[in-house]
């Protein structure tokens, strides 16, 4: 647990970090970024909370089994979308031209059309769930362990 | 003495190789293959994505992303397994 100043600043900027992470994830098929990058930004908010409030308080809100479940569901979503196009090939983009993210843009810059990309936005979400939960789980586990060894020995 | 000679010889060989590579380098902006031109021209029609980088990562080279996700997943599994709370450990 750090000082009141650090905790107040953390309270202020954590929502902004989360919103920016979500933006990077959800616009991964239009602007730069994607599931990995946005997931890392999102997980950095978890790191901020852990540093500011200490693992004693945070571990009741970010439980390892929950994080594992989120991570596994993201991985399953990603691999399932890869298998969904198995009728053509593995990782075939079967949603192009369909009702789900199906717009096909003309050649050239078209950043205002975000309903594009086929399976790519969905895969971004899957990878982001995987990355966020995995990094958060590692940080929580390491914080708990380091706190335990510091107090115990 | 032998050590110094070996180090000097290595440096000279390395320098000659780097110099040769620098001389053989392509002019700036000239791609070494036609693959990237193909991807830039066809990404929006084939994958529907405006971001060619995302399209490469998740569509053209989906296997690579699958491997990355698997590596991350395996690393996290190992860390959580190593640092888990054991059954014989006293509760806090």
Can I get a quick summary?
With 153 residues, chain A is mostly helical. Chain A has helices spanning 4-26, 35-53, 55-58, 64-84, 120-152.
Descriptive notes:
The complex is a heterodimer of chains A (153) and B (92). Chain A has helices spanning 4-26, 35-53, 55-58, 64-84, 120-152. Chain A is mainly alpha-helical. Chain A has one domain (4-152). In chain A, helix 1 (4-26) packs antiparallel against helix 2, helix 2 (35-53) runs parallel beside helix 5 (120-152) and helix 4 (64-84) packs antiparallel against helix 5 (120-152). Chain A is elongated, with a radius of gyration of 19 Å. The mean pLDDT of chain A is 88. Chain B is an all-alpha fold and 92 residues long. Chain B has one domain (2-82). Chain B contains 4 helices and no strands. Chain B is flat, with a radius of gyration of 25 Å. The model of chain B has no long low-confidence stretch (mean pLDDT 85). Chains A and B meet through helix 4 and helix 5 of A and helix 2, helix 3 and helix 4 of B.
* Mean pLDDT over all positions of chain A: 88
Largest sheet of chain A: none
End-to-end span of chain B in angstroms?
62 Å
What is the share of helical residues of chain A?
55-70%
Oligomer: heterodimer
Report the order of strands and helices of chain B. Answer: HHHH
Stretches with pLDDT under 50, minimum 5 residues of chain B: none
Helix tally of chain A?
A: 5
User: Over all CA atoms, what is the radius of gyration of chain B?
Assistant: 25 Å
Distance between the termini of chain A: 20 Å
Number of domains of chain A: 1
Largest protein interface? A-B, 51 and 30 residues
Radius of gyration of chain A, Cα only, in angstroms? Answer: 19 Å
Question: β content of chain B, as a range?
Answer: under 5%
- The helix content of chain B is over 70%
Beta strands of chain B, count: 0
